[in-house]
């Protein structure tokens, strides 16, 4: 579990520092957008009050979303502690946990998740923004699927 905790802390700090630097230090909330390497990488301020891509919007209480995220974090911790995860599964769990807690922190601080990374390419203009936590939650979930600890199957004894 040490690897999971370290990965979660690193992701949480990276997420919160990146949000502070871009949103507050660069003033993205007042500027609205900053072209970094257009069209590949831009900062576009978006306050996500819903689930993924803003689904649910103001119809879902931020407290419900916080409780769901914390339940998922608890479930991942219980699952990892009850199995024998390899290093990659532990890191994946930490990525998911750190990202989920980063977005929980946003909801506690702002009532919404601060999204700011926008990427477009090849004539496709992406209307959505995301953040470091979103990337790590996605990567962690994929990693847990790929590197999930194998469960022992019970042997049939006649």
What this model shows, in words?
The protein is 55% helix and 12% strand. It is an alpha+beta fold. It has one domain. It has a 3-stranded antiparallel β-sheet.
Binned strand content: 5-15%
Distance between the termini: 38 Å
Task: Give the strand order, joined by hyphens, for the main sheet.
Answer: 1-2-3
Quote the average pLDDT.
87
Return Rg in Å. Answer: 18 Å
Query: How many separate domains make up the residues?
Result: 1
Offer a quick outline of the entry.
With 158 residues, the protein is α+β, with helices and mostly antiparallel strands.
Summarize this structure as a short list of keywords or feature phrases.
single chain, 158 residues, alpha+beta, three-stranded antiparallel β-sheet, 5 helices, 3 strands, 12% strand, globular
Question: What topology emerges from the helices and strands here?
Answer:
Layout: H1 2-25, H2 28-31, E1 33-37, E2 41-48, H3 62-81, H4 87-110, E3 113-118, H5 132-146
Antiparallel strand pairs: 1-2, 2-3
């Amino acid at each position: 579990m040490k690897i999971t905790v370290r990965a979660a802390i690193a992701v949480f700090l990276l997420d919160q520092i990146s949000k502070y630097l871009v949103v507050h230090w660069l003033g993205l909330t007042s500027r609205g957008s900053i072209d970094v390497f257009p069209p590949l990488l831009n900062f576009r301020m978006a306050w996500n009050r819903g689930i993924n891509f803003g689904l649910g919007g103001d119809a879902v209480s931020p407290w419900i979303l916080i409780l769901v995220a914390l339940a998922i974090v608890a479930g991942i911790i219980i699952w990892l502690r009850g199995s024998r995860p390899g290093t990659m599964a532990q890191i994946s769990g930490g990525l998911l946990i750190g990202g989920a807690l980063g977005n929980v922190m946003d909801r506690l601080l702002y009532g919404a998740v601060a999204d700011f990374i926008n990427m477009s390419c090849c004539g496709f203009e992406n209307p959505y923004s995301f953040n470091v936590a979103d990337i790590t939650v996605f990567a962690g979930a994929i990693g847990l699927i790929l590197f999930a600890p194998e469960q022992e199957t019970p042997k049939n004894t006649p």
